[in-house]
UniProtKB/TrEMBL annotation:
<dbReference type="Pfam" id="PF12840">
    <property type="entry name" value="HTH_20"/>
</dbReference>
<dbReference type="InterPro" id="IPR011991">
    <property type="entry name" value="ArsR-like_HTH"/>
</dbReference>
<protein>
    <submittedName>
        <fullName>Transcriptional regulator</fullName>
    </submittedName>
</protein>
<dbReference type="InterPro" id="IPR036388">
    <property type="entry name" value="WH-like_DNA-bd_sf"/>
</dbReference>
<dbReference type="InterPro" id="IPR036390">
    <property type="entry name" value="WH_DNA-bd_sf"/>
</dbReference>
């Protein structure tokens, strides 16, 4: 199978509504989830949850680890629980095939070579401010843009980086653009700052102190 075939197969699994719901639950969770927690959150049996979770693992959409949830060690501590988290890999399909990722890399390379970082950040901040001007709830807006936000006390952390592939190749350029974009989107009630979430976005948002 080609990489494109793998993407079709993986994304095809999400056509099942139960499987899609389980994937969204695990992908949005700030921490790994066990089968019991997934089943309870989805309102289905543990055996059904386990079946669909394993299918998502086989497709490369979820990854697993093993850990004792009680924190106990040694004899009598019990078997480690199987925990699920969103896999690091990406799957993208377009019909007919398109190469937006190649265009993105070329544009990023050109901007970086030309030293247009500040111009890019200004454009990103303006684009974010335009989104904030719609009056949409910030968390819902972030969720719609693929950031997978979650609350960590008074801080909004972002479980996913929508620009992950480009950020890996051009970290300074893309992370600076992302910070400016979220700074504009945050408006006056929130403050965006570089504060990476493990496995997620490099930016976190906090309530502005003087409001």
């Amino acid at each position: 199978m080609t990489a494109e075939d793998d993407s079709y197969a993986a994304l095809g699994l999400l056509g099942d509504p139960v499987r899609r719901r389980l994937y969204r639950l695990v992908a949005a969770a700030p921490e790994e989830m066990g089968r019991d927690a997934v089943a309870e959150a989805a309102g289905i049996s543990r055996s059904l949850a386990a079946f669909h979770l394993e299918k998502l693992v086989e497709a490369g959409l979820l990854a697993v680890s093993f850990r004792r949830l009680t924190g106990r060690t040694g004899p009598g501590a019990g078997r480690p629980a199987k925990l699920y988290r969103r896999a690091d890999g990406e799957f993208a399909v377009s019909v007919p095939p398109r190469s937006y990722d190649a265009a993105g890399r070329l544009l990023a390379e050109t901007v970086e070579r030309a030293g247009l970082d500040l111009e890019l950040q200004a454009a990103a901040r303006a684009a974010g401010a335009a989104g904030a001007g719609t009056g949409a709830d910030l968390e819902e807006e972030l969720r719609a843009r693929g950031y997978a936000p979650f609350r960590d006390g008074e801080v909004l952390r972002l479980r996913n980086c929508p620009f992950h592939a480009l950020a890996q190749e051009f970290p300074g350029l893309v992370c600076g653009m992302n910070l400016a974009l979220l700074d504009g989107l945050a408006g006056e009630e929130w403050t965006a700052a570089m504060e990476a979430c493990a496995g997620g976005c490099c930016v976190a948002l906090s309530k502005t102190k003087d409001r």
